[in-house]
Amino acid sequence: MPDRPVTLTFWSDLSCPWASLALDTLHAEALRLDVELLVDHRAFPLELFNSMPTPKHIIDSEIVAIAGRLPELGWRLWHAPDSTYPVTMLPAMEAVQAAKDPAVGGLAGSDQLDTALRRAFLVESRCVSIPAVILEAAGSCPLVDADALARAMAEGRGRAEIHRDWAEARRTSVQGSPTLFGADGKPVHNPGARYHWSKDVPPPEGGFPVLEEYTRDWAEALLVDAIPHG
């Protein structure tokens, strides 16, 4: 194992199944390689780009495409009442940013919280728009001080960072959710996934995403290249 952790910058929307797939792959590969991985989460807030909530039917179709091919992920379609489906991911993404404060959790705690929130959404069908649900997820994270996070959220910490990231993503080479930046500084968008839409128009009017192939070798290459030396 390297003496220092590997840090990767990861841009995504917390609702994005493709981003959750990439993060699952990264974490699993880091564990296999015995590499300490720090993920610096940056927000690619789809609802701000699109001026609307990300439609549930789009996310559902992507979950089916991914989890149908990779059932080991354990994802489920939304099984709570539709009235509890999160209309916004901003509070959850703000909490992930607020958790970067060393007094709350640092980068490792922030990543742990991001993972817990994605599980709450994709597996447990929890409304991660709600502060109580966010803090319950934080309580399951050993590296996060949930009380400190609650104070940070009450003060609105993390909100400015979301809008900063939104502005930065619009003027730089961030291609979408997910986009990763490795040691060479080059953007990598939605790595490992080869897919197409069965029709040009997405559901419910038209086609569906078809995941043709998913490979995981990109994660090893990215991690090994990012291992600090000297």
Instruction: Name the shape in a single word.
Output: globular
Mind telling me the C-alpha Rg? 17 Å
Strand content: 5-15%
Q: For the record, what CATH class applies?
A: Alpha Beta
CATH topology: Glutaredoxin
Strand order in the sheet with the most strands: 2-1-3-4
| Helix percent band | 40-55%
- Give the averaged pLDDT, no decimals: 94
By helix and strand content, what is the structural category? alpha+beta
Model regions low in confidence, pLDDT < 50 over at least 5 residues: none
CATH architecture annotation: 3-Layer(aba) Sandwich
The structural domain count equals: 1
Quick one: how many beta strands?
6
Cα-to-Cα separation, first versus last residue: 14 Å
Task: Output the CATH homologous superfamily.
Answer: Glutaredoxin
Secondary-structure element series: EHEHHHHHHHEEEEH
| Main sheet characteristics | 4 strands, mixed
Number of helices: 9
Description:
The protein has 230 residues and is of the alpha+beta class. Strand 1, helix 1 and strand 2 form a beta-alpha-beta unit. A 4-stranded mixed β-sheet has the order 2-1-3-4. Helix 4 packs across helix 8 and helix 6 runs antiparallel to helix 7. It contains 9 helices and 6 strands; from the N terminus they run E-H-E-H-H-H-H-H-H-H-E-E-E-E-H. The chain has a single domain, classed as Glutaredoxin.
